[in-house]
Amino acid sequence: MSVELLAVALFGIFFLLIFANVPIAVSLGLSALVGLHIAGFDFSMFPSIMYTAIGKFALLAIPFFILAGVIMEYAGISQRLVNFAQVCVGHLQGGMITVVVVVSCFFAAISGSGPATVAALGSILIPAMVSAGYDKGVSTALMSSSGAIGIIIPPSIAFVVYASISDTSVADLFSGGIIPGIIVGIAYILAAMWASRGNKNIVRQAPSSYKERLAAMKEAFWGLMTPVIILGGIYGGVFTPTEAAGVAVVYGLFVGIFIYKEIKIHNLWKLFVDAAISSGVVMFIIAGASVFAWLLTTSHIASNISETVLSAGLNKLTVLILINVVFLIAGCFLDANSAFYILIPIMMPIVHAFNIDPVHFGVFITVNMAIGLITPPVGINLYVGCNIAGISVVDLCKRIIPFVVAGIIALMIITYIPILTMFLPQYLH
Question: For the whole model, what pTM was predicted?
Fold first, then answer.
């Protein structure tokens, strides 16, 4: 069978299964299995490729960061971070909006996952915004959008996956994601303020005293130290990103059991099961996507697509727009891990040909996928937010539009001003 027909079969079966509402991991695996048969490869290669893909040392960080996020949630970190943010900025104009984004950024630096951030904070912050007079739909849209920052602010699972595929430094990606994550957060604050304009029901809370702020800071201190320990240890050369994930787990257990005393021994089984289920889903997606990506590479589908783009005579500006459009569309249907395995083998030759830094590329395509988390029809953050707030997806889709627009504006800024991404990686070298 020709390369063109194999490509049509591979992508055709995959998208057919996706539209049939088959889970992404299964869709990737089945389409790759059929692709192996069509291409004439032995089925015994399927488990071998899967195992090789998930057996990388760098990917060990994923289950550890997921476990660390679950531990921090059980330890009561989220409520303490919310309380601290409220006493610091809750009295300002748009204070609750800022609280949601700031706390999401802090929790993102613990969990590394967008949906996990929405799930952990939504049940606290959405009711808090509603009680302050904000519209429930706008509150849910803001929480869903802010939670998406979880895959941009380090430590990010998406960055770990991208690094394993592209052979890029995880530490550089982590530092490169800090400023873009803040830019996206500011964009969402402005979007929420615009969406809440004219709302006369909003009530600003009374300013907190110095004593109240100090007490809240003391309560939140151990949670605030988590990203400091993780990132400080990585950039201080104390441990690798993978080792940092293990340190985060040990630190979280210590804080949850001995300091906050929120985690009891009988909670540990459920805690580990929750983390194992989340980790299993991610690793299953990576395993299936790796076979799909291997087929794209070995059958020369990826190289043929890359050569076609390169021969079109496009300039760098147009190529960057094209890459963003591709990943924005992919984000409507795929999670970041799946999209990276499918598209990066195609994109990397183009990235190198146009001298786009791999770190900059990794960060701005991750911003694309963060926007995808709040874009129908598969935007998982929307469904998590709707489930928490008790509103329909249709209603939320109307309210999410300003946030998608704000995210795309932030994406353009990050894409076309590379120094915003590259400043910290270059400074820390």
Answer: 0.88
